[in-house]
Amino acid sequence: MVNVCHQESAEAAWEAAAAVPDPEVPCVTVADLGILRWVRLEDGVAVAGVTPTYSGCPATLAIEFAVEQALREAGFEARVERVMSPPWTTDWITAEGREKLRDYGIAPPVESGGKATLFGAPTVACPRCGSTDTERLSEFGSTPCKAHYRCKACAEPFDYFKCL
Hints:
Blueprint: H1 4-18, H2 30-33, E1 36-42, E2 45-50, H3 60-73, E3 77-82, H4 95-104, E4 106-107, E5 134-138, E6 146-151, E7 157-161
Parallel strand pairs: 2-3, 4-7
Antiparallel strand pairs: 1-2, 5-6, 6-7
């Protein structure tokens, strides 16, 4: 039998951690991105598993500190564990997260592209007008995980969240 109070506490811990926004792309949360892997209670301590988007991500420590702080503010003793395996993939971005990126003006990663999307430029739809008549201007956008594109239909520049 599951202790209902324990289950409610675990859910509250998840909700607190899941609400943390990504510091580089604040329109999405760590849960939207799929980098918050789990939150569990261990001997009264809320432990959150966080996977960086890539090993050199400069926001990793900021994210870990923010998740720990959110758990503490929710009344938990807290600890964050960095989970490196399996490595994060853009496939873990939720449907809601993809929509939030698009609404923010960032084209979400192409879904189910596999490793082939790492080579060459994928067909990327403009987040503003939806046209696929777009071109990559630079492999790197405002952060290393994004590329810079331009829509030929509406002439607007935009970032594309690269597939990993």
